[in-house]
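[agent] plan:
  1. take the single chain provided in the ticket
  2. run structure prediction with default settings
  3. attach structure tokens to the ticket
  4. add a short note for the reviewer (M.T.)
[agent] executing step 1
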Amino acid sequence: MQKIIILGGGISAEREISLLTSQTIKSALESEAMAAEVLDPADFTDWTAMIAQLKSEQPDMIFMGLHGAAGEDGSLQKLLEDYNLPFTGSGSEACRLAIDKNVALDLAAQLNIPVASRVYLNKSDFYSEEEIINFTRLPLVVKPNSSGSSVGINIVKERSELNEAMTDAWKHEDWLLCEKFIPGRELTVTILDDKALPVVEIKPYQGWYDFANKYTHGNTEYICPADLTEIEKYTIQQYALDIFKVMGCKVYSRIDFRYDGDKFYFLEVNTLPGMTSLSLTPMAAKAIGLDLSALLLRIIELSKLK
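[agent] step 2 finished; step 3 output follows
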């Protein structure tokens, strides 16, 4: 019987979603007769204590169920690498690049993949609201540079809303992005084993795909495979593959886009996409005949080979 330790919870703003993801993974693995246990990094005084626990338990694999900083930013992955402990998904360097939205956008632009115009700001920087708006144009999106699950994100439609949106983003970290809002469709592509899975379209019934619409049953319609022409499907899937590879990602990741009917605009890479009942990567896998348990087993097996 394989022994799998799932790391979930942690200290990021996405802690509750991570705990939900981890419990979902645990249940699915137990249904496959695996010994699965969830360890929460927040329960340890420091990472040295957590590493000691992991080494003592000698798992066949550590399944990364963490989201956000100190779990998805490569720092924990680097520690696991240093102690030669096996873990799922991308290595430390790819995680470090992917979680930094500004860096990821730069890399995508170097591949000639469309990205929205943006301003990258530190909390201590001097900035002019007028300059930001003149550069990006309204409406614009304000977001923390390294957070997920739409935490700290606001859509700014009027100049009077900008300062409040920036203040909200800065509650979560010291760097933010002000990006031009791309109207149109929200699409995502999961890469699994260097192959693009069917495209998922995300259609909230009201508003945009914020935290509530992501994690509340009945708030959002998901279409998989998305209604795209063959050329459109090829384009977005190839963009996702190119980004996955240039980041150095391994095993699996999810890449998000906006589509204005003319161009696919890259948004971000998620090296540890969610595995809840409303998560997008399991939807894409299901479209090719992989249920959640089969997807998780595939991730584990691929992670042993990376």
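[agent] step 4 note for reviewer: The domain at 118-180 is CATH 3.30.1490.20 (Dna Ligase; domain 1).
[agent] ticket updated
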